[in-house]
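Input chain follows. Return C-alpha coordinates only.
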Amino acid sequence: MQSYTKTSPPPSPQPGEATLYMNMHTSHTSPTMSQRCSDLALSAKKYRYFKRLFKFRQMDFEYAFWQMIYLFIAPQKVYRNFQYRKQTKDQWARDDPAFLVLLGFCLCGSSIGFALVLGLGFFNFLKFTIWVIFVDCIGMGLLVASIFWFVANRYLVAIPNRGQEVEFGYAFDVHLNAFFPVLMILHVFQLPFLYFINANHQSFLSYFFGNTLWLVAVGYYVYITFLGYSALPFLKKAQVLLSPMMGLVIFYILSIAFGWNFTRYLCNFYHYRVWSPY
Protein backbone atom coordinates (compact mmCIF):
# COMPACT_ATOMS: atom_id res chain seq x y z
CA MET A 1 0.00 0.00 0.00
CA GLN A 2 1.38 3.36 -1.01
CA SER A 3 1.56 5.97 1.75
CA TYR A 4 0.90 9.65 1.28
CA THR A 5 2.49 12.45 3.26
CA LYS A 6 0.08 15.14 4.31
CA THR A 7 1.54 18.59 3.82
CA SER A 8 0.44 21.24 6.30
CA PRO A 9 -0.88 24.48 4.80
CA PRO A 10 1.14 27.65 5.26
CA PRO A 11 0.27 29.60 8.40
CA SER A 12 -2.33 32.27 7.92
CA PRO A 13 -1.21 35.81 8.64
CA GLN A 14 -2.05 37.20 12.01
CA PRO A 15 -4.30 40.23 12.27
CA GLY A 16 -2.38 43.35 11.35
CA GLU A 17 0.47 41.55 9.57
CA ALA A 18 -1.06 42.04 6.13
CA THR A 19 -1.56 45.72 6.78
CA LEU A 20 1.99 46.01 8.08
CA TYR A 21 3.30 44.24 4.99
CA MET A 22 1.35 46.52 2.66
CA ASN A 23 2.54 49.62 4.48
CA MET A 24 6.15 48.42 4.31
CA HIS A 25 5.74 47.57 0.65
CA THR A 26 4.26 50.91 -0.33
CA SER A 27 6.22 53.14 2.03
CA HIS A 28 8.72 53.98 -0.69
CA THR A 29 6.22 54.60 -3.46
CA SER A 30 3.20 56.24 -1.86
CA PRO A 31 4.83 59.65 -1.12
CA THR A 32 5.95 59.93 -4.74
CA MET A 33 2.54 58.95 -6.05
CA SER A 34 0.76 61.30 -3.67
CA GLN A 35 3.10 64.14 -4.63
CA ARG A 36 2.43 63.50 -8.32
CA CYS A 37 -1.30 63.46 -7.72
CA SER A 38 -1.03 66.67 -5.73
CA ASP A 39 0.96 68.36 -8.51
CA LEU A 40 -1.53 67.24 -11.13
CA ALA A 41 -4.44 68.50 -9.05
CA LEU A 42 -2.68 71.83 -8.52
CA SER A 43 -1.99 72.19 -12.24
CA ALA A 44 -5.63 71.42 -13.03
CA LYS A 45 -6.81 74.06 -10.53
CA LYS A 46 -4.49 76.66 -12.04
CA TYR A 47 -5.68 75.81 -15.54
CA ARG A 48 -9.34 76.17 -14.53
CA TYR A 49 -8.64 79.45 -12.76
CA PHE A 50 -6.87 81.10 -15.71
CA LYS A 51 -9.37 79.62 -18.15
CA ARG A 52 -12.23 81.32 -16.31
CA LEU A 53 -10.31 84.61 -16.23
CA PHE A 54 -11.73 85.57 -19.63
CA LYS A 55 -15.21 84.09 -19.17
CA PHE A 56 -17.16 86.75 -17.33
CA ARG A 57 -20.41 84.81 -17.43
CA GLN A 58 -18.90 82.06 -15.29
CA MET A 59 -17.72 84.46 -12.58
CA ASP A 60 -19.67 85.18 -9.43
CA PHE A 61 -19.28 88.96 -9.27
CA GLU A 62 -22.04 89.29 -6.69
CA TYR A 63 -20.14 87.10 -4.23
CA ALA A 64 -16.87 88.93 -4.97
CA PHE A 65 -18.58 92.28 -4.35
CA TRP A 66 -19.93 90.90 -1.06
CA GLN A 67 -16.38 90.00 -0.04
CA MET A 68 -15.16 93.52 -0.83
CA ILE A 69 -17.82 95.07 1.38
CA TYR A 70 -17.17 92.71 4.27
CA LEU A 71 -13.42 93.34 4.11
CA PHE A 72 -14.34 96.70 5.67
CA ILE A 73 -17.29 95.63 7.82
CA ALA A 74 -16.30 92.19 9.14
CA PRO A 75 -13.21 90.65 7.46
CA GLN A 76 -13.48 87.58 9.71
CA LYS A 77 -16.57 86.50 7.74
CA VAL A 78 -14.57 86.60 4.50
CA TYR A 79 -12.02 84.14 5.84
CA ARG A 80 -14.78 82.02 7.34
CA ASN A 81 -15.96 81.47 3.78
CA PHE A 82 -12.44 80.43 2.83
CA GLN A 83 -12.76 77.70 5.45
CA TYR A 84 -16.05 76.57 3.89
CA ARG A 85 -14.31 76.39 0.50
CA LYS A 86 -11.67 74.10 1.97
CA GLN A 87 -14.40 71.79 3.26
CA THR A 88 -16.38 71.72 0.02
CA LYS A 89 -13.72 72.06 -2.70
CA ASP A 90 -10.60 70.84 -0.88
CA GLN A 91 -8.64 74.07 -1.45
CA TRP A 92 -8.12 77.29 0.46
CA ALA A 93 -7.48 79.54 -2.52
CA ARG A 94 -10.21 81.07 -4.66
CA ASP A 95 -11.26 79.12 -7.72
CA ASP A 96 -13.15 82.11 -9.15
CA PRO A 97 -11.12 85.08 -10.52
CA ALA A 98 -14.06 87.49 -10.08
CA PHE A 99 -12.42 89.26 -7.12
CA LEU A 100 -9.23 89.92 -9.12
CA VAL A 101 -11.24 91.21 -12.10
CA LEU A 102 -13.30 93.56 -9.91
CA LEU A 103 -10.10 94.78 -8.28
CA GLY A 104 -8.71 95.54 -11.73
CA PHE A 105 -11.80 97.59 -12.59
CA CYS A 106 -11.42 99.51 -9.32
CA LEU A 107 -7.80 100.26 -10.20
CA CYS A 108 -8.86 101.52 -13.62
CA GLY A 109 -11.44 103.83 -12.04
CA SER A 110 -9.02 105.21 -9.46
CA SER A 111 -6.40 105.69 -12.20
CA ILE A 112 -8.82 107.96 -14.05
CA GLY A 113 -9.16 110.10 -10.93
CA PHE A 114 -5.39 110.27 -10.45
CA ALA A 115 -4.90 111.15 -14.12
CA LEU A 116 -7.30 114.10 -13.75
CA VAL A 117 -5.69 115.35 -10.53
CA LEU A 118 -2.13 114.91 -11.79
CA GLY A 119 -2.94 116.33 -15.23
CA LEU A 120 -1.96 113.24 -17.22
CA GLY A 121 -2.68 112.88 -20.91
CA PHE A 122 -4.34 109.84 -22.46
CA PHE A 123 -1.18 107.86 -23.19
CA ASN A 124 0.31 108.72 -19.82
CA PHE A 125 -2.95 107.61 -18.24
CA LEU A 126 -2.65 104.23 -20.02
CA LYS A 127 0.94 103.92 -18.84
CA PHE A 128 -0.07 104.83 -15.30
CA THR A 129 -2.91 102.27 -15.31
CA ILE A 130 -0.66 99.48 -16.58
CA TRP A 131 1.89 100.24 -13.88
CA VAL A 132 -0.70 100.29 -11.12
CA ILE A 133 -2.43 97.05 -12.15
CA PHE A 134 0.43 94.85 -13.32
CA VAL A 135 3.28 96.15 -11.14
CA ASP A 136 1.82 97.65 -7.96
CA CYS A 137 -1.02 95.15 -7.54
CA ILE A 138 -0.10 91.90 -9.29
CA GLY A 139 3.71 92.11 -9.48
CA MET A 140 4.27 93.33 -5.94
CA GLY A 141 1.47 91.02 -4.82
CA LEU A 142 3.29 87.98 -6.17
CA LEU A 143 6.47 89.12 -4.44
CA VAL A 144 4.77 89.77 -1.09
CA ALA A 145 2.76 86.53 -1.35
CA SER A 146 5.98 84.59 -2.03
CA ILE A 147 7.59 86.03 1.09
CA PHE A 148 4.61 85.25 3.33
CA TRP A 149 4.19 81.81 1.71
CA PHE A 150 7.82 80.95 2.45
CA VAL A 151 7.78 82.31 6.01
CA ALA A 152 4.48 80.58 6.86
CA ASN A 153 5.53 77.18 5.51
CA ARG A 154 9.03 77.41 6.97
CA TYR A 155 8.38 78.82 10.42
CA LEU A 156 4.66 78.87 11.23
CA VAL A 157 3.45 75.36 10.33
CA ALA A 158 2.67 73.56 13.59
CA ILE A 159 3.73 70.05 12.48
CA PRO A 160 5.97 70.09 9.38
CA ASN A 161 6.02 67.25 6.84
CA ARG A 162 2.45 66.21 7.52
CA GLY A 163 1.06 67.27 4.15
CA GLN A 164 -0.18 70.57 5.54
CA GLU A 165 1.16 73.68 3.90
CA VAL A 166 -0.02 77.11 2.85
CA GLU A 167 -1.15 77.20 -0.77
CA PHE A 168 0.57 79.88 -2.82
CA GLY A 169 -2.78 80.81 -4.35
CA TYR A 170 -4.16 81.37 -0.87
CA ALA A 171 -1.18 83.60 0.02
CA PHE A 172 -1.91 85.66 -3.11
CA ASP A 173 -5.60 85.84 -2.17
CA VAL A 174 -4.66 87.14 1.28
CA HIS A 175 -2.62 89.88 -0.39
CA LEU A 176 -5.52 90.83 -2.64
CA ASN A 177 -7.86 90.97 0.35
CA ALA A 178 -5.45 93.22 2.24
CA PHE A 179 -4.66 95.35 -0.80
CA PHE A 180 -8.29 96.28 -1.50
CA PRO A 181 -8.77 98.50 1.63
CA VAL A 182 -5.43 100.18 0.86
CA LEU A 183 -6.70 100.95 -2.62
CA MET A 184 -10.01 102.32 -1.34
CA ILE A 185 -8.40 104.53 1.31
CA LEU A 186 -5.42 105.91 -0.63
CA HIS A 187 -6.72 105.89 -4.22
CA VAL A 188 -10.42 106.60 -3.72
CA PHE A 189 -11.18 108.24 -0.38
CA GLN A 190 -8.03 110.39 -0.46
CA LEU A 191 -8.54 111.42 -4.10
CA PRO A 192 -10.75 114.51 -3.47
CA PHE A 193 -8.15 115.83 -1.02
CA LEU A 194 -5.10 115.37 -3.23
CA TYR A 195 -5.06 118.94 -4.50
CA PHE A 196 -5.25 120.30 -0.95
CA ILE A 197 -2.50 117.95 0.27
CA ASN A 198 -0.19 118.76 -2.65
CA ALA A 199 -0.81 122.50 -2.65
CA ASN A 200 -0.25 122.76 1.12
CA HIS A 201 2.16 119.89 1.53
CA GLN A 202 4.23 121.72 4.17
CA SER A 203 1.30 122.61 6.43
CA PHE A 204 0.67 120.52 9.56
CA LEU A 205 -2.95 119.82 8.67
CA SER A 206 -1.97 118.57 5.22
CA TYR A 207 0.60 115.98 6.22
CA PHE A 208 -1.28 115.06 9.42
CA PHE A 209 -4.39 114.20 7.41
CA GLY A 210 -2.50 112.40 4.64
CA ASN A 211 -0.21 110.44 6.95
CA THR A 212 -3.17 109.40 9.12
CA LEU A 213 -4.81 107.88 6.06
CA TRP A 214 -1.57 106.04 5.33
CA LEU A 215 -1.51 104.73 8.91
CA VAL A 216 -5.07 103.44 8.63
CA ALA A 217 -4.46 101.89 5.18
CA VAL A 218 -1.23 100.08 6.06
CA GLY A 219 -2.68 99.05 9.43
CA TYR A 220 -5.63 97.52 7.58
CA TYR A 221 -3.20 95.62 5.35
CA VAL A 222 -1.32 94.17 8.33
CA TYR A 223 -4.51 93.25 10.20
CA ILE A 224 -6.26 91.55 7.27
CA THR A 225 -3.05 89.68 6.44
CA PHE A 226 -2.92 88.45 10.03
CA LEU A 227 -6.56 87.31 9.83
CA GLY A 228 -5.83 85.41 6.64
CA TYR A 229 -3.03 83.32 8.09
CA SER A 230 -4.59 82.92 11.53
CA ALA A 231 -7.62 81.34 9.80
CA LEU A 232 -5.43 78.35 8.84
CA PRO A 233 -5.77 75.79 11.65
CA PHE A 234 -2.34 74.23 11.06
CA LEU A 235 -0.37 77.45 11.61
CA LYS A 236 1.03 78.43 14.99
CA LYS A 237 2.05 81.82 16.36
CA ALA A 238 0.31 83.74 13.59
CA GLN A 239 0.25 86.69 16.02
CA VAL A 240 3.81 87.43 14.96
CA LEU A 241 2.35 88.91 11.76
CA LEU A 242 0.93 91.74 13.87
CA SER A 243 4.41 92.78 15.04
CA PRO A 244 4.82 95.49 12.33
CA MET A 245 1.97 97.46 13.93
CA MET A 246 4.18 98.88 16.68
CA GLY A 247 6.85 99.96 14.20
CA LEU A 248 4.15 101.44 12.00
CA VAL A 249 2.83 103.63 14.82
CA ILE A 250 6.36 104.78 15.74
CA PHE A 251 7.09 105.63 12.11
CA TYR A 252 3.81 107.58 11.92
CA ILE A 253 4.73 109.65 14.99
CA LEU A 254 8.16 110.40 13.51
CA SER A 255 6.56 111.47 10.22
CA ILE A 256 4.34 113.96 12.03
CA ALA A 257 7.26 115.26 14.09
CA PHE A 258 9.52 115.80 11.05
CA GLY A 259 6.78 116.88 8.63
CA TRP A 260 7.06 114.03 6.13
CA ASN A 261 4.18 114.07 3.67
CA PHE A 262 3.75 110.54 2.30
CA THR A 263 0.97 111.51 -0.09
CA ARG A 264 3.18 114.17 -1.61
CA TYR A 265 5.97 111.61 -2.01
CA LEU A 266 3.51 109.23 -3.68
CA CYS A 267 2.37 111.86 -6.20
CA ASN A 268 5.99 112.77 -6.99
CA PHE A 269 6.76 109.09 -7.51
CA TYR A 270 3.79 108.71 -9.84
CA HIS A 271 4.92 111.78 -11.80
CA TYR A 272 8.42 110.37 -12.15
CA ARG A 273 7.11 106.97 -13.19
CA VAL A 274 4.82 108.35 -15.88
CA TRP A 275 7.18 110.94 -17.33
CA SER A 276 10.22 108.70 -17.13
CA PRO A 277 11.33 107.34 -20.55
CA TYR A 278 11.59 103.79 -19.07
